[in-house]
Structures are given as structure tokens and as C-alpha cells.
Amino acid sequence: MLKEVDVIACEDTRQTQKLLNHYGIATRTVSYHEHNEMTRAAELVKDLQEGTSVALVTDAGMPGISDPGFRLISLAIRHHVPVVPIPGASAFSGCAGGQWAPHRFLPV
Questions:
Q1: Could you say which DSSP state residue 100 is in?
Q2: CB–CB of 54/6 below 8 Å?
Q3: Residues paired with residue 55 on neighbouring β-strands, in sequence order
Q4: C-alpha distances in angstroms, 88 versus 1, 26, 52, 58, 62?
Q5: Angstrom distance (rounded) from CA 76 to CA 78
């Protein structure tokens, strides 16, 4: 997936770059975090509307629940841009009754 998109929006480009380097992925990255989410979300949605494919990578857990991804996802949905979640293996987030709770691996 990350090899196929045009740009990867990263909560922390340094951490994401380690993953990308490990797998030999050369996709362009842009920062997307709590300090720039107001402006960057609008830029990314504009890019999406123009046909650019964007992946959002967060530091931990499911993007869009308790991180800056929420603003980007909400804005994309408001502008009728499809959002496709692809959960990772490290965390699962479930929603119930308007509340969210992170769920991790069970202890052994």
C-alpha cells in the first residue's frame, strides 16, 4: 500500500522513515501532526480531490481515533472523499456508544 500511494502523511516523519527504509519504500512523505493539522488537512484534502493518493501513518494505533488523523478524516468525509481504513497489527481501536477505547494484545 505505501509503495502505491503518491504521498504519505506522517505523524512523525522520522519514525515513519525508519519503516519505509526497512522495506525499501521511496514514497514522498509530508508531516501531519497536532501542530500543523489545521492547515495540512486542508492541503491534503485538496490533493485528494485533484487525484493524488494519500496514506496516513500514525505513530501508534488506529489512525483517526485519538490523533491528528481525526481532523483529516472528518474533512475528507465532509468533502465526499472516500476514506479506506487499513488497520495495523499493533493495535485495534473499537468504538461503542460514542466512546472509544484502545485495545491491545492480551497478556500471555
A1: E
A2: yes
A3: 8
A4: 12, 20, 23, 10, 7
A5: 5
The beta-carbon contacts of 83-88 under 8 Å, at least 24 apart in sequence, are 86/1, 87/62, 88/62
pLDDT in tens, 15-52: 999 989 999 999 999 999 889 989 999 999 999 999 99
Q: Which three cell numbers stand for residue 76?
A: 475528507
Q: How many CB atoms lie within 10 A of CB 10?
A: 22
Q: What are the E-state strand segments in the chain?
A: 7-10, 28-31, 54-57, 92-96, 99-103
* Spatial separation of the C-alpha atoms in residues 41 and 33, rounded to whole Å: 10
